[in-house]
Amino acid sequence: GLTTTRKEKVLSYFTNNIYGLTASKYSRGRDNITVVKAMLKAGVKIIQYREKKYTRKIMLKEAREIRKLTREYNALFIVNDYIDLAIMSEADGIHLGQDDWPVQDTRSIVGENMIIGVSTHAPAQAEEAIRNGADYLGIGPVFSTNTKEDVCDAVGTEYVKYAAENAEIPWVAIGGIKEHNMYHVCKNGARCIAMVTELTMADDIEKKAQSVLRTLEELAKNS
Ligand code: TZP
Ligand code: MG
Questions:
Q1: Percentage of the chain with pLDDT > 70?
Q2: 126-161 burial string, b = 16+ CB within 10 Å, else e?
Q3: DSSP letter for each residue of the chain
Q4: Mean per-residue pLDDT for 78-103?
Q5: Which of 29, 144, 186, 187 has the fewest CB atoms within 10 Å, measured from its CB?
Q6: Which residues pair with 93 in a beta bridge?
């Protein structure tokens, strides 16, 4: 049958989509699996497993469970930080920060099929990530956020605009983005929005994600 290349796969998923991340610390006692299920039910098509405090054993168990669920919902599954966990859980992608392993070295380990995403906070970092073979970029933190420890200062919608005008690969805006301020992000060209606490802290995660997806659709139509 038809084979979808890595590049085509990324492009299709990073257009008009919400990129949902786990955060057990900010999920009001709900476990990561419950949170992911609610996001998937709502129609979120990219899930990142981001877990900073659990043991390897627990992370592997959760990542495999999320791998199963994301397959059922035709969603992309990305693992944050851990190359080994991404491989062991058969994730679609691995997400690297500026202080994680370099893209080229990561590629040599994960092979040609795995998507590699890189967090960037400035144009020079975006250019470097693209040069090194990243498949998508994280653009942010757009607004200030307390969700991430050692997060850099908010980069603002200026950097979103830069990405919209210059990025040669798909990208996702992240950091402090809520339903009420996503207008400013979309207005500057974002077509894929990452959210942590707007979803994980919601009373009803599924309802919130549905509402955010409707808002994104409206904003995309009018721009
Ligand atoms: N990378 C840059 S900002 C951030 C990450 C993982 C956290 C975003 O969380 P929130 O709750 O959507 O502001
Ligand atoms: Mg990292």
A1: 99
A2: bebbbeeebbbbbbbbbbebebbeeeeebbebebbe
A3: -PPPPHHHHHHHHTSSEEEEE--GGGSTT--HHHHHHHHHHHT--EEEE--SSS-HHHHHHHHHHHHHHHHHTT-EEEEES-HHHHHHTT-SEEEE-TTS--HHHHHHHH-SSSEEEEEESSHHHHHHHHHTT-SEEEE--SS--SSSTTPPPP-HHHHHHHHHHH-SS-EEE-SS--TTTHHHHHHTT-SEEEESHHHHTSSSHHHHHHHHHHHHHHHHHT-
A4: 98
A5: 29
A6: 78, 115
pLDDT tens digit sequence for 91-139:
999 999 999 999 999 999 999 999 999 999 999 999 999 999 999 999 9
Instruction: Tell whether pTM > 0.95.
Output: yes
Which atom of ligand 1 is nearest the CA belonging to 197?
11
> Any idea which residues carry the catalytic annotation?
50, 119, 148
Whether the CB of 151 sits within 6 Å of ligand 1: yes
